[in-house]
Amino acid sequence: MSEFAQSAEKENPRRRWIGLVFICLAQLMIVLDITIVNIALPSAQRDLGVSNGDRQWIITAYTLAFGSLLLLGGRIADFTGRKRAFLIGLFGFAGASALGGAAVGFGMLLAARALQGAFAAVLAPAALSLLSVSFTGRSERAKAFGVFGAIAAGGGAVGLVLGGLLTEYLDWRWCLYVNVPIAVIAAAGWYVLPRDVRDGDRPRLDLPGVLFAVTGLVALVYGCSEAESDGWSSRRVLFLLTLGVVLLTAFAFVERRVAKPLLPPRVVSDRTRAGAYLAVALAVVGMFGMFLFLTYYLQAVKDYSALLTGVAFLPLTAGVLVAAGGVASRLLPRVAPRALVVPGLLLAACGTAWLTTLETDTSYAAGVLPGELLVGFGMGLVMATSMNYATHGVGAQDAGIASATVNTSQQIGASIGTALLNTVATDATKDYLSGRRPTPALLKEGLTDGFATAYVVATAILLGAAVLVGALMNARRPQRVADRAEATHAAPHLG
């Protein structure tokens, strides 16, 4: 039996559950930051004198660094110890957040956002891999990942509420400062997190793999972000997307031939694990589409305040919590993963389909609320199950990179989905307004028509995802998965 397995057996079960609280706090901080800064963006733009053309970089700087460095961050967690990587990521993220809150100019804020993304790329896979190696039993693992999945799927809605509160009653800078106390509290979990166990054979870092992965992901994420403003047919966007695909293809080629790959093919070759990565990548298209367009619909069409908009998203969070923490956590040990993921994707598709019916005079209770509940419940099933099986069955030495891969899937899916749906909505709005005399009422109608068209595309993507994931995931009984996980978790832990 390996030293890791021995230490896992001796681990106090109560310590694991206390550790889960601190791990989830770190995950909440990362997820909050995705939406909380969106609420603060208009105020920050006015305060720092940022132009309309440059404001997108406040978001893009974070997503570029985060999305492109995740695979490297996951492997760093495996090499240096995931507990140590967790602490480095926490304090680095908190420091970058404080720097951003104190920004006196656009350049300083941009640098802080990029640093946030870089440290998040270390923190996110470290947190998920700590969870993966802490909970190996079927029942407790299902409960733990139910909680974690609820935060991963619903934390963004909490960010909208918190961002609205902080921006309206304090200052936009507190949307960044708030990360500091959260990080300090999460760091207090150092003593209850599973210790790092070093292995004598420390493999060298796959530098060619790092080069191809980072540059390929940068090109892909940057190309998607530029597509929002330049359009998908612009030369720069096409060049970046093509370059990203070529570099990532080269990365896949290299990983099959090097002795110690950055992303071992064994991590993604399992059908259920690959299905989990695909489910996350495609599911967040609907999720981020809902955040983006409902935020604009409620504020620009329904004239909600930022705070009221955040409150309006709370039923979405409730749906996620019920599905992930209540339903998925109970069913995960008993049913095959696709029996939860596929219905979750179908429910989310029903929610986005419901939102295609929105009109300028549709009431919140009749239009927005049912769509939120359906999407929230569906996403709770998808994220809790997918986060579980994305790391289920991998050896402890690969837990970090497996965690990074599912996080990368989420980032790439969000980048492509947001850019794609935003382009669809913008084009539909332009077509609706073409040849008409613009009035405030007509502009609202045009926006609503654009959002509805985007939700049609989101629905098609979620339905397609349900078909693909249903075909890809094995209908394997949970006991068989658990048996394999127990065997592979006995592999040495590289700390």
From TrEMBL:
Pfam families (alphabetical): MFS_1 (PF07690)
Keywords (A to Z) from UniProt: Antibiotic resistance, Cell membrane, Membrane, Transmembrane, Transmembrane helix, Transport
Record membrane topology: Multi-pass membrane protein
Subcellular location: Cell membrane
Domain Major facilitator superfamily (MFS) profile: 19-477
CDD domains per UniProt: MFS_MMR_MDR_like
Primary localization class, coarse: membrane
Record carries keyword Ribonucleoprotein: no
Transmembrane parts of this sequence: 20-41, 56-73, 85-112, 118-137, 144-166, 172-193, 205-225, 237-254, 275-298, 304-328, 335-355, 452-475
NCBIfam families linked: efflux_EmrB
Protein name, UniProt field: MFS transporter
